[in-house]
Design a protein that fits this description.
It is a single chain. With 189 residues, this protein is mainly alpha-helical. The chain has one domain (3-187). Helix content is 66%, strand content 2%. It has helices at residues 3-11, 29-40, 54-62, 76-88, 94-107, 115-145, 151-187, and strands at residues 27-28, 73-74. The protein has a two-stranded antiparallel ribbon. Helix 4 runs parallel beside helix 6, helix 5 (94-107) crosses helix 7 (151-187) and helix 6 runs antiparallel to helix 7 (151-187). It is globular and about 60 Å long. It starts with a helix and ends with a helix. The model has no long low-confidence stretch (mean pLDDT 92).
Length: 189
């Protein structure tokens, strides 16, 4: 296994909560946290990190990032929405996530929208992204091999290359969020 494959393996990009793994019964907050911990704990950078906390969930609810809960229980829809937020929070600000989640939350309950279908599409894209990422990171590693440097300097070059790509992807996502904001303003005129 080369360095690229080792990195991708440790990232656990294929790990996710599929719709069929979410119980059809409503869960209390502690149960939601346990579900997320059981799926994502191995993807954390270190043991001090938390996948999800009560404070995070409460802040998402207060910030109206997802539909209101009922009787302190979280439905299958809530868990799908929380997972979407979880996937976004590493790259976007809470305000950008709220903007991104707005159109989804508005459509829930409409006969022409299936959150479960949307969620499944998102999971399928993430799985494809994991394979694309492996290919992309291998290409970066091969490109770096051409330079006449060794050891930690080569690793530093790899780090700067990956950070640069991360910034490019984040900025592209932010531009799309800005388009959502402009579209919403135009709709409200």
């Amino acid at each position: 296994m080369n360095k690229s494959e080792e990195i991708v393996s440790k990232l656990g990009l294929e790990v996710n909560i599929h719709a069929e793994e979410i119980p059809d019964i409503d869960l209390y907050m502690d149960q939601v946290i346990q579900l997320f911990d059981s799926k994502f704990s191995q993807t954390l950078r270190n043991t001090d990190e938390k996948v999800l906390t009560k404070t995070m969930i409460n802040n998402y609810a207060k910030g109206k990032l997802f539909i209101p809960i009922k009787n302190k229980k979280y439905s299958k829809q809530h868990i799908m929405l929380i997972n979407l937020i979880y996937q976004l929070k590493g790259a976007l600000s809470i305000n950008d996530i709220k903007t991104t989640m707005g159109p989804i939350n508005e459509k829930i309950g409409n006969d022409d929208f299936s959150l479960e279908n949307f969620y499944s599409y998102s999971i399928a894209l993430q799985q494809g992204n994991a394979q694309n990422f492996l290919e992309e990171i291998k290409a970066h590693e091969q490109e770096i091999e051409q330079f006449d440097i060794n050891g930690d300097l080569k690793k530093l070059l790899f780090i700067t290359s990956l950070a640069n790509m991360s910034n490019a992807y984040r900025k592209a996502a932010e531009l799309l969020v800005d388009e959502l904001i402009v579209n919403k303003k135009e709709e409200n005129k």
